[in-house]
Amino acid sequence: MIIFVLIFICLYGGINFYAFSRVKKVLHLSVKAKIIIKILLVLLVLAPVIIRLAESRHLETLARSIAYIGYLWMAFVFLFFFLDLALNLSRNICKFFFKRARSIAVRNIVFGLSVFLSVVFVIYGFYDAQRIRVKRIEIQTDKLLLNNGKIRIVQISDVHIGLIIRNNRLQRIIDCVKEADPDILVSTGDLVDDELNNVMPQSRLFADIKPKYGKYAVTGNHEYYAGIGNSLEFTKNAGFEILRDEVRQAAGIAIAGIDDVTGRKMGIIKDHLPSVNLLHLTQSNKFILLLKHQPIVNDNENFNLQLSGHTHGGQLFPFMLITRLFFSKNYGYYNLGEYKSLYVTRGAGTWGPPVRILAPPEITIIDLIGKKID
């Protein structure tokens, strides 16, 4: 985690340095102005660390204010970096055909356009991140099911309850779940974010969601980053039964939950049952629902439907192009063969910037249609 933070700060600092170098070329700044901007940029780069320190000292209002400022700036500067590179590449190509493309005026127009578009996209993405979509999937199976052979499963994932996703934002997600009226509610990881000191009361918002056949959850990587003990406590208080390499029977289906691989990488999980053996033990005459946070498909695992999240669908364009490098199944429904499929959700919340661009938040409704149990 420390190595990841250091690498992130270096990359993020480099992007901010690029933005500063572009500003210097367009605006004639005084020495004093340059110093002030450099200090502000250093503080913005270190904002995630400052937020964590502020919250650890119970300065929640300060931490939340810095989170909004720091993370919105993060979204802006990332977008500016990609847009400015793309527009300048186009300008450099145009230089071979149009002499005017070499002028300072055109260079300044490119800079201004990059800034303008970045601001517009951040504003749009900030409000779009609060508009929860509902994705509906119908899956036919030859397995026997309770409830007249029809089971509605609602999936939430990557809610990231913390400084930003809470209260009204969280309530919107919960209202969508209630409206979906699930028979089974599942959370496929990252229900909580890294900052958990003051969000335990938010678990009560889940109290009114009482599906007929229960609520089940698995851990994600952020459950471990936030502290696995507190994360599990929050999830239990929210009414979920946590499946850590375990199987439960509900409504005529077998629900298998795999603990996130982060726990094994951090050395926290050592003695849990390996997932391959877990799913071999699952009854093959039942519909097998597999909950796994990261969309990694193991061909040896026995399941009919795997539900995953983690990728956020990229969250901010063009990051979906990057997440596809690590996860080929980045978002959507994938048919893996006869009676075997995977659905990867974009998730309902946000991580870092409270912004989504071309990757809107969602909850998923899976209507499972099988044979009636007489």
Overall tally of domains: 2
**CATH architecture field of the largest domain:** 4-Layer Sandwich
Q: Structural class from helices and strands?
A: alpha/beta
Percent of residues in helices comes to 40-55%
**Counted beta strands:** 12
In which order are the strands of the major sheet placed?
Answer: 1-12-2-3-4-5
CATH superfamily of the largest domain: Metallo-dependent phosphatases
Shape: globular
The protein's oligomeric status is single chain
CATH class of the largest domain: Alpha Beta
Gyration radius, rounded: 23 Å
CATH topology of the largest domain: Purple Acid Phosphatase, chain A, domain 2
Unreliable spans are none
The portion of residues forming beta strands comes to 15-25%
Main sheet record: 6 strands, mixed
Q: What is the H-and-E element order?
A: HHHHHEEHEEHHEEEHHEEHEEE
Q: Helix count, per DSSP?
A: 11
Give the overall pLDDT as a whole number: 90
Summarize the structure.
The protein has helices at residues 2-26, 31-45, 47-56, 60-94, 104-128, 167-180, 221-225, 228-237, 261-265, 275-281, 319-326; strands at 133-145, 150-156, 184-188, 215-218, 241-242, 246-250, 253-258, 287-292, 305-308, 332-337, 340-344, 362-372. By secondary structure, the chain is an alpha/beta fold.
What do you see in this structure?
Helix content is 43%, strand content 20%. It is α/β, with parallel strands linked by helices and 374 residues long. The protein folds into two domains: 2-128, no CATH class; 134-372, Metallo-dependent phosphatases (Purple Acid Phosphatase, chain A, domain 2), CATH 3.60.21.10. The strands form two sheets. The protein has a six-stranded mixed sheet with strand order 1-12-2-3-4-5. Strands 6-7-8-9-11-10 form a six-stranded mixed sheet, covered by helices on one side. A hairpin with a 2-residue loop joins strand 6 (246-250) and strand 7. Helix 1 packs across helix 4 and helix 3 (47-56) runs antiparallel to helix 4 (60-94). The longest helix is centred in the first third of the chain and has 35 residues, at 60-94.
